[in-house]
Write a structure and sequence with these properties.
It contains 6 helices and 11 strands. By secondary structure, it is α/β, with parallel strands linked by helices. The protein has a single domain, classed as 3-Layer(aba) Sandwich (Rossmann fold). Helix 2 packs across helix 3. The radius of gyration is 16 Å and the shape is globular. This is Esterase. It holds the Pfam family Abhydrolase_2. GO terms for molecular function: hydrolase activity.
């Protein structure tokens, strides 16, 4: 299979032959790229394979995975296709690289967080966990998608208290929805706008290490 998305891959320096590694797939925000996301995941690159997936639709100097009718309102056909193609990409990469299928994580910001949470609901326990930074779950995903059980999927959600793109109430609503679906939810607020603070990064890095059974 030829993957639909360009991607960067960062392997741990001392790869052991035959060993499978925990892996983080990163999904960037609208108008950004996979290199910006690697900056967030870099502290984990000694222990995890990090795969940055670039959106396939150009937007300004960056990229996106889907287009919008209006803020918070994805074009359904493009969004549906992105979810399907990203799920296919995760399986493609798992076959191609020494990825532990029991320790696959998604790390997404904004549009990437929206897709990470949607993929968790679609893939269920095929994923070990997700980190969703400043995102939401589209209503049509909740009401129309075939949702799998995520009761044993670990979920870290964070939101900026002063987010000017997705108001903080959206973070609370998203956490409340997922609280009903998984026992492994951590929800945190940070005194930021639509971005990721150093404290936020430190918290999810430590959370990922702990969840994957690595020392923090």
């Amino acid at each position: 299979m030829q993957p639909m998305y360009p991607y960067d891959i960062h392997m741990p320096l001392n790869l052991e032959p035959g060993k499978k590694y925990p892996t983080i797939f990163t999904l960037h925000g609208k108008g950004s790229n996979e290199r910006n996301m690697f900056g967030l995941a870099a502290p984990l690159s000694e222990d995890f394979i990090v795969i940055g997936i670039r959106g396939n639709l150009p937007l300004g100097a960056g990229y996106q995975y889907y287009e919008l009718k209006s803020l918070g309102n994805p074009i359904r056909e493009i969004f549906d296709d992105a979810v399907k193609q990203l799920e296919g990409f995760i399986h493609y990469a798992t076959e191609k690289y020494p990825i532990d299928p029991g320790k696959r994580y998604l790390l997404g910001f904004s549009q990437g967080a929206i897709l990470s949470m949607t993929l968790a609901l679609v893939m269920g326990e095929q994923l070990k966990g997700i980190v969703a930074l400043n995102g939401y779950i589209p209503d049509f995903v909740k009401s129309e998608y075939p949702i799998r059980s995520v009761k044993d999927v670990s979920v870290f959600i964070s939101h900026g208290e002063y987010d000017s793109v997705f108001p903080v109430r959206i973070g609370h609503e998203t956490a409340e929805y997922l609280k009903d679906h998984t026992n492994r939810l951590e929800f945190k607020l940070y005194p930021t706008d639509h971005g990721v603070s150093e404290e936020n990064q430190r918290d999810f890095v430590n959370w990922l290490k702990k969840d994957a059974g690595l020392s923090t």
